[in-house]
Amino acid sequence: MSDSRLIYLPLGGAGEIGMNCYVYGYGKPGEERLIVVDMGVTFPDMDTTPGVDLILPDITWLKENRNRIEALFVTHAHEDHVGAVGHTFDALGVPIYARAFTANIARGKLAEYGVEGQAVRTVSAWPETVTVGPFSVGFLPISHSIPESSALVIDTPAGRVIHTGDFKLDPTPLVGEAWDPALWESVAKDGVKALVCDSTNVFSQHAGRSEATVGPAVEKLVSEARNMVVATTFASNVARVKTLAEAGDRAGRSICLLGRAMRRMIEAAVETGVLSGFPKVIGPEDAAQLPRENVMLLVTGSQGERRAASAQLARGKYNGIELKEGDLFLFSSKTIPGNERDVIRIMNQLSEKGVDVVDDAMGDYHVSGHANRPDLETVQNLVKPQMVVPMHGEHRHLREHVKLAGQNGRAGVLAVNGMMIELSGNEPRVVEYIETGRTYLDGSVQIGALDGIVRDRIRMALNGHVVVTVILDEDDEPLGEPWCDLMGLPEQGRSHAPLVDILEEDLAQFMGRAGGKTLTDDDKLEEGLRRVARQTAMNEIGKKPEVTVVVSRLS
Amino acid sequence: MSDSRLIYLPLGGAGEIGMNCYVYGYGKPGEERLIVVDMGVTFPDMDTTPGVDLILPDITWLKENRNRIEALFVTHAHEDHVGAVGHTFDALGVPIYARAFTANIARGKLAEYGVEGQAVRTVSAWPETVTVGPFSVGFLPISHSIPESSALVIDTPAGRVIHTGDFKLDPTPLVGEAWDPALWESVAKDGVKALVCDSTNVFSQHAGRSEATVGPAVEKLVSEARNMVVATTFASNVARVKTLAEAGDRAGRSICLLGRAMRRMIEAAVETGVLSGFPKVIGPEDAAQLPRENVMLLVTGSQGERRAASAQLARGKYNGIELKEGDLFLFSSKTIPGNERDVIRIMNQLSEKGVDVVDDAMGDYHVSGHANRPDLETVQNLVKPQMVVPMHGEHRHLREHVKLAGQNGRAGVLAVNGMMIELSGNEPRVVEYIETGRTYLDGSVQIGALDGIVRDRIRMALNGHVVVTVILDEDDEPLGEPWCDLMGLPEQGRSHAPLVDILEEDLAQFMGRAGGKTLTDDDKLEEGLRRVARQTAMNEIGKKPEVTVVVSRLS
User: Fold this and answer.
1) In chain B, positions 488-507, which contact chain A (CB-CB < 8 Å)?
2) Do A219 and A202 share a structural domain?
3) What is the C-alpha separation between B359 and B339, in angstroms, rounded?
4) Nearest by CB to A347, which of B396, B444, B453?
5) E-assigned strand segments in A112-198
């Protein structure tokens, strides 16, 4: 076995926050048997991915090596870890292992693609393990902002790896298992080859706060509210939803869940037994009938998503419920960078309705789900791994995390997506670079990030679009003059005459001057017309539009 | 004079942060003589204004009432207060009054439009005043994050108004005048009708911090750095630039300014005498020659602007200077909501180069330029205005500020853009609604926000664009089959055949079925072709594109 090696290869999540997808392999170089850990998505934005519905890891390498893959393990049910299981199942078709709550969510995603539930196999917590190929894998409980988040204990002939997944060190997480240092110590005591570790909060200097610290402030706020109370948080943060619901319940309010994800998550948590004692909920019809001071809505859309319940309530009536002067709206959440404008828009719409908005600006109504810098050190010192491999972070987080490991005398490696790392030596070592990237789900089609499709959309959005049409007869002579259709461009510019007229005039002049060499050559003709259209537009309106030239030949 | 009134009308900046433009009027209703305070811009984003270069207040109402306008007063030289003076000068053509530093910047903006410098008249600080029509206006010094920021003392026959402009209460601002409570008290002692007041930080619960508190931390950081040091902040924050430069100077580093705005602001501050004792600066050529540990760069681009020096240094060589492993990059700034992704992109690019990035996450390297909630109360209690009119804030800020005034027993009014408020009564009162909005500078053309041009761009970006071309002969019979050009759309979808082929096939079928009534009617034909193209695309790729139909008739 001495010519076999243990490798680690991130395909998503290393050099970004989102779209997690990590591969481990063991065997002879190039023939390693593989397992995949997590298959997540990330979300598009107008700046870089207009019109795109979801962003998935590019799994080309996995498809090429499909027959070497033993299984997919999912650490927890956040979208950036489980979101792509449905979209990629067809291409990979490997068994999926997860704990009960995560499996419940994963099955829902597969069902949307018509895949049956048995594709996902439920595994109990450590010490249960699953053996696939040369790997034995167990789900080690760890606290996070979703139930049943787990680190993976991955045993291989080259030693034990702990892949933390997302985690925090919470002794009182309210829902799900508490951080259990004794359990972790026992798992680590015989030596850990590598700790592959969440890096999200490596820049946060203070130890993280427990989920339990949120309750008192929420309870005070809700108990003092005099009209309707609405609260939003990530639906998957079941502990938080429970805290909010209990605060409402104690204040004599009936709880109403709004938004598909909110209902789905609570349902999954109850079905799988991770949540009990949740206050009775009522439907929106009943909520609309009750006195406002007896209702508390728990709603989706803490990140300002336009179609979620928060945004809809901010815009107007939703499910028969309308917010009014004196109602209270609590964001029990942190705004993820990039979502600020959407969240602020909602806050202002609520303000226009006279609704009092409360958020976590003062740190009272939210805690992070990720381990802060001192917590990362705690885990390193407990697990005492031979090497630290930071993951789940942007480049700056991974780099800082490597530094932190170094400060504690441990070997670290900055591995970003596509870097295959050999873990079986004494120090981590880059052995290969794999082509990686992003796949866009666009409508019902998966397209490559570098296909140029989205680039063209961005160009049209920035520059507008001119369509130039010319017709040539059988003798390659222009039949009439060129004409233009404009989209996304000002109607007139410097000349105070319609831009379309000025463009058509200049294009007609070009056609008049064009000789047989140009008129018989589609490429030359298109290039000439495009150049004239762009230059004329530049003179008139100060910008060069995208130009599509349509040449029709009657032949 | 009893039938005359004093009015206040925000045209920009009330209900948003940015694009400040406020109007005061005195006289008989509808015949008030007017002054304008500030003429600022706001910045576009890809989400709502792709391709737009700048956003200006819609000054239609001012143009319609041009002969009633006495003058424009500019409180300070931030872009959201002075940025539109050049773009609107032609349309208004009124004299502009400002203090020396602001006037210097304003003249630069007018020069870009070929307007001579005498259009801007320099006014000294209070007690100097300018009398225009029924108004007497003085510039009352107040601290902010730019030199010579001033409140306006606006005396009218109906009483005194204090328009704060942007401000903070800083006893040690380092550059420019300190907050002088005695001066303000003396100005207010005979009674103030209305305090029209900055609302930006009304949600910040603690008293603001002085600019002087930033120095020690910066000095420590710079003195401990071992390679090149780069720092970025708003160029207009001359005090901060000075603090940074002095820290570099004391650490034995030569100072190099990079970015046009950085050089322009320091130049203006020196020219107008607000800045003295600034360390000697060197050019980038010299900086590139010196040992790295002897250089400090002060650069533009703290908000991640793609063309600014920070972004260019993060991408590669800029002005002959390249950052390297072990250099230090300080963001002495706060990221404005909406700019997070751009700033984070730069931080990660710097991380990839091995540059250590330090920001204000822990609150050590930046202070805000706006008055916090307790500071707003301090000013209210000092000025004791009859009424408080919050401005410079989103709806939620204005609303909270009105509440704050109420808590202190003062009448407040929530006035957003377009609401004309009468201030001459005992309580503020809405007397009219004026149509307001935004004007986009798009290339060299000013377009209206509601013209539909930007909406079309957004649609193309989200949905892609299909151009369908058909030719009909003299008898209204199709000449050949329709064809399609696609932009921003996947090449194939469900059928695994080229999307363009599938579209053309379905469009040809439609043309084949179409009767004379359709073929002779351009509108019907276009509508039919559009419907087919959208439906076919929906089936194939799961989205409905924008469709432009070009019908050519050979007649």
Assistant:
1) 488-494
2) no
3) 14
4) B396
5) 120-122, 129-132, 135-141, 150-156, 159-163, 192-198
Looking at the complex, does the CB of residue A453 fall below 8 Å from at least one CB of chain B?
yes
Burial of A136 (0-12, 13-18, 19+ CB in 10 A): middle
Shared domain check, B221 and B202: no
Put simply, the answer to whether B340 touches A341 (Cβ < 8 Å) is no
Q: Which residue of B305, B336, B348 to mutate against A (max A Cβ within 10 Å)? A: B348
Q: Is residue A282 part of a domain?
A: yes
In whole angstroms, how far apart are CA B375 and each of B147, B170, B486? 20, 10, 57
The contacts of residue A547 (CB under 8 Å, 6+ apart) are A465, A466, A467, A468, A529, A530, A533, A534
Q: Does residue B301 share a domain with residue B221?
A: yes
Q: Is residue B376 part of a domain?
A: yes
User: Looking at the 3D structure of chain A, how many domains does it have?
Assistant: 3
Domain holding A123: CATH number?
Answer: 3.60.15.10
CA B479 to chain CA mean position, Å: 53
The two tokens of residue B491 are 């090449």
Q: Say whether both B333 and B387 belong to one domain.
A: no
Enclosing domain of residue B16: 5-206+368-448
ipTM, two decimals, is 0.94
Residues 6+ apart with CB under 8 A from A158: A4, A5, A6, A26, A193, A423, A424
pLDDT one digit per residue (tens) for chain B, 555 residues: 469 999 999 999 999 999 999 999 999 999 999 999 999 999 999 999 999 999 999 999 999 999 999 999 999 999 999 999 999 999 999 999 999 999 999 999 999 999 998 999 999 999 999 999 999 999 999 999 999 999 999 999 999 999 999 999 999 999 999 999 999 999 999 999 999 999 999 999 999 999 999 999 999 999 999 999 999 999 999 999 999 999 999 999 999 999 999 999 999 999 999 999 999 999 999 999 999 999 999 999 999 999 999 999 999 999 999 999 999 999 999 999 999 999 999 999 999 999 999 999 889 999 999 999 999 999 999 999 999 999 999 999 999 999 999 999 999 999 999 999 999 999 999 999 999 999 999 999 999 999 999 999 999 999 999 999 999 999 999 999 999 999 999 999 999 999 999 999 999 999 999 999 999 999 999 999 999 999 999 999 999 999 999 999 987
Q: Which of residues 308-367 of B touch A (CB under 8 A)?
A: 337-338, 340-341, 344, 347-348, 350-352, 354, 357, 361-362
In chain B, residues with a C-beta closer than 8 Å to the C-beta of A451 are 490-491
Residues B181 and B306 in one domain: no
